[in-house]
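Notes, Module 5: Reading structure tokens.

Key idea: the token line is not a picture. It is a compressed description, and you learn to read it the same way you learned to read a sequence, by spotting repeated patterns. We will look at two proteins. The first is printed below with its tokens.
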Amino acid sequence: MSKIDPIYVGKDATGKMLEYVAAHGLKRFALVADTNTYAALGQHVEQALKAQGYEVHSVVLEGEHIHTDEHQIVQVLIRAPLGPCTFIAVGSGTITDITRFCSHRSGRQFIGMPTAPSVDGFTSIGAPIILAGVKTTIVCQPPMAVFADIDTLCNAPQRLVAAGFGDMIGKITSLADWNLGRLLWDEPYDTDIAARSQVAIDSVMSRADAIGQRTEEGVRALMDALIESGLCMLDFGATRPASGAEHHISHYWEMVRLWEGRESMLHGAQVGYALTLVARQYERVRAIDRAELMNRLEAATLPDRATEIANIRAGYREMSPKILIEQAPFLDLTEADYDNLKHKIADNWDEIQSVAETVPEPSVIIDALRKAGGPADYEALGLDADEVTNGLHNGHYLRNRFTVAKLSHVIDLPMD
């Protein structure tokens, strides 16, 4: 069970927040926002708190593109007051993660006030932080409570709403990859949490049109699903219920763009498009019968360690030492280990095929993304063909997870 109480999505979220802080004796606050979210809701929250006699220190981060990185973290830590206070995150994913990290590392708690249904991290325990150019999820803390104003959410820019939809349906392949990890890499798994996540996915897939039109019913369903996804991660204690190959590809695109001084796209928009690529891999898996599988496994040989290291160094540049550590369980496989992995694939092929059947055809996902108003091809997203290829071939190195990308490497299934 989650420890976040309450989680409110509805009218007059600020009023509900005021009732909460009064009931809990909170009197001093550090409000974190960016210039857009401060205008959308933050200033209203600040004024409402001050009208009740509370002390409020607002930290408004400036700039067109705010990243969850060392620079912004230091900005908040320097500008937030010393001593006892409660942080309030007024914003979407980036502001929430910056606040989550800063509040946790300074020994204080925070309240979440989302301004757009754009990500699933509002109720999670992890903060994806870009440290020295590498996107790393740091275990921090969930908010004390969440107050999401439905009118603010419905008035959020369509691209943010569509990004939330992309992030949420990305869980389709997150769950499939999590199942592969359970079967083939002995990764921890929770059937109940997987079932909860599937219900949340289904609720937004069935409302793509309403979400695209930003109706109150559609936006509320999306926000509820994103919150549930965050709770699934919180209750499981890791990101596996909500992050698979589609997220690894997205993270890779973002990291490379940061290294090159280019702006990355919205996280959820990237995930939604990456989902179409990963769904294509599952489509290819479904097309392999047992006879073909056995032929592929017979031909499969342990990847050359030096070649894999060279690939990682080429793909991750100066960040490669950290990636090599993450990939050590794969790089250190012996011939016996690899043979055991191939036997696991063969023994579990029927179940692997059943997992692949849970992933819709890419065309179904593309149609849903377009209905929700999000990009469904690389050009609309702002990528070029080389970036797509590099993400497909390098994303799987980012985490010690056994996803469909790893399976594709073992059975020599093309990724393009």
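Here is the second protein, with the sequence above and the tokens below, as before.
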Amino acid sequence: MTTQALTAPVRPESLQQIPVVPISSVGFAKDMAGDPLTTVTRYCQEHGELVRAPAFGKFLVFSRHPDHMRDVLVRGTPRFYGKDTRGYGMMRKVVGLGLVTSEGDFWKRQRRIANPAFHRKRIEGWADMMTTATEDRLASWAGTIASGDPIDIQAEMMALTLRIVGETLLSVDVTGEAAEVGEAVGVVLGQVGYRTRTPWSMPEWVPTPRNLRFKRALETLDRVVLGIIEERRASGDGDDLLGMLMGMQDEETGERMTDLQLRDEAMTMFLAGHETTATNLTWTLYAISQHPEVERRLRAELDEVLGGRTPTVMDLGKLEYLDRVLKESLRLYPPVPMVARNALEDTELAGYHVPKDAYLILSTWSAHRHPDFWENPEAFDPDRFLPERIESVPRHAFMPFSLGQRKCIGDRFATMEAKLLLAMMVQGVRMALKDNHPIEFDANVTLRSKHGMPMVLRTP
């Protein structure tokens, strides 16, 4: 049963009750604090595709099934499901009411204003900035290559994509602040994840070391972003996203963004615009380093199409294997591994009763590894995205940028950026993971590597 009944009054007595995981609230909280990714998968494997977990009195529902995600994110939003959840509440403390966290008519207006900044032609115009930044980053690795010492590719990708988002969307060079900003982003995302999964955490006003680190990190990000806005107000220059947001009027209302709205949108783009792409590239480079045949085929394609030169937008359509490699990385390592929603009223999902105010946690991580949709789901196999193989997989089973009207506005930007950067890095260096380095997932909003990603670099 699907959600075709969404338009009809819900009669709970005619619906199934969601099965409950037989565990205490404390046991559940420990599971989620320890390993949320495999916890959701295990609960669904053992108790059903839609399961309820005891969560200190909250009606908390988990799903790993792509059909449920389609029904919630595409068919059910925004009438039946919203973003008034613990996690989004924490994110609002960081990005305010930006595009990721706002809802309703306010979100619609902000989206209309921002849409032109992400037009395909405008995005393609930023390709040269992206490749120039990557050339500079590759050149900076010369000493590391010569010494043979490992370098943290996760930190390097964060710094590179931070420069790109600064130059393309905000027309500023934040390279000198990359380390400070990168550390601050890690702290705020860690705090969001921690407080979302840990109901017994101390109130934010208590001056614990964790709370104080979060406060300082948020002050750092505010200082950088508000400084960018203040400089732009003074100069009036910049044909970029920030300039468009400052100058654009809503077609329906004639309103412009306030300084607070500009701060929230700039902070959203500043974080989302570099964090998710850096995460995607980090895991892609890791996967390539672990699969020599994938690296060999990727290098052969790059040699044939590019012959060692810098890629352009016109080359990307010819890099078919590179495209499949990136998609397979997004499948196995989705940058945002979980999505949350709250039920705005009593509704029905797959024949089950979902009461008003229930929280739904949708695991993109688990959906991308669901054996009903993906053959040999744990394997890194880029050729699963060949046309003749992927046609049998429902489109909604692959959702690295979410689904429906709340799908990421920057998906084209991120895709083009990842392709250009990956092509240049694979051409420019070979990477090998440091011997015996532990790989552990850190799922705090985005999917980072908990212990970094130290790689030994050498010439191709």
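Summary for the second protein:
- The chain has one domain: 3-458.
- The first strand starts at residue 50 and ends at 55.
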